[in-house]
Design goal:
Elements (H helix, E strand, L loop, with lengths): L1 E3 L2 E3 L2 H22 L8 H15 L2 E2 L11 E5 L2 E3 L13 E10 L2 E10 L5 H19 L7 H14 L3 E2 L5 E3 L6 E5 L17 E4 L2 E3 L5 E3 L6 E3 L5 E3 L2 E6 L2 E4 L4
Antiparallel strand pairs: 1-2, 3-6, 4-6, 5-14, 6-7, 8-12, 9-10, 9-11, 11-16, 12-15, 13-14, 16-17
Helix pairs in contact: 1-2, 3-4
């Protein structure tokens, strides 16, 4: 596999495999998300994901990764990312962010969506819309010759124009034979950042995490669950995207 500035460049065959692994991840996430409703526990979502991984003959990517104990990250309301599945019942008006990945034929897939639980507030719905829209705008910038931070800028500008905050503590990443590869893909333009031109063969996971209030983060006592410091709502959407000569190719759609 070729490298450019420490970043693995995937060939056509490798991208084809990554398309399949990400397609499987997207299908599993969609089926898990279809269960989201008032009265359902996030543990039920975890159990469904495990069964579907067995059915598709894939390995849950997160379980055991750096010690994370579950297949799903289930983050409810003010939880940003890395939330634990539990016996907690979802209630009408909640939002739940589900981050999920799998490994198949030596490659990883990674995707995330925030789901409404029953009827959610106008403000929460707007947060979900803006976060998803920022992801789409970021993906549009993932073309050869653009800078990596053109992706970051598109996300940040959309989010901040709506009065929301981009979470800066967590960022997207390269993906391939490892779950997290170079480069880091921030959802903001870092100060004193150097250019990193995008090249065909790069595969990146773009994942805006957006809060209604502060961008400040607190980690709970479990050592994993990240929450907004002011306990404002947070949303999270993610796609794994291949940079091709014809433009961005979203791998993690069904």
């Amino acid at each position: 596999m070729k490298k450019h500035r420490g970043i693995f460049l995937k060939n056509t065959q490798e991208i084809a495999i990554m398309r399949e692994v990400n397609r499987i991840a997207a299908n599993i996430l969609n089926e898990v998300g279809s269960l989201v409703a008032p009265g359902v526990t996030t543990w039920e979502l975890e159990e469904k994901a495990i069964k579907l991984c067995a059915s598709f003959e894939v390995i849950p990517a997160f379980k055991g990764y750096l010690g994370f104990p579950y297949a799903l990250c289930c983050s409810v309301n003010e939880e940003i990312v890395h939330g634990f599945p539990s016996k907690r019942e979802l209630v009408d008006g909640d939002i739940v962010s589900i981050d999920f990945g799998v490994k198949f034929q030596g490659f990883y897939g990674d995707t995330a969506r925030t789901f409404p639980v029953g009827s959610i507030s106008q403000g929460a719905a707007h947060l979900l819309d803006v976060t998803l829209d920022s992801l789409k705008l970021g993906i549009e910038q993932a073309v050869p010759g653009n800078d990596l931070y053109d992706v970051s800028r598109a996300v940040q500008e959309r989010v901040e124009a709506q009065g929301f905050s981009v979470i800066k503590r967590f960022v997207g990443h390269g993906i391939g034979r490892m779950l997290h590869e170079k480069p880091e893909v921030p959802n903001f333009v870092p100060k004193n950042s150097s250019r990193l031109p995008l090249k065909p063969g790069m595969v990146i996971a773009i994942e805006p995490m957006v809060a209604m209030g502060t961008d400040q983060v607190e980690i709970l006592s479990d050592g994993w669950t990240a929450v907004t410091k002011d306990r404002s709502l947070s949303a999270h959407f993610e796609h794994s995207v291949a940079i091709t000569k014809d433009g961005p190719f979203i791998l993690s759609q069904m």
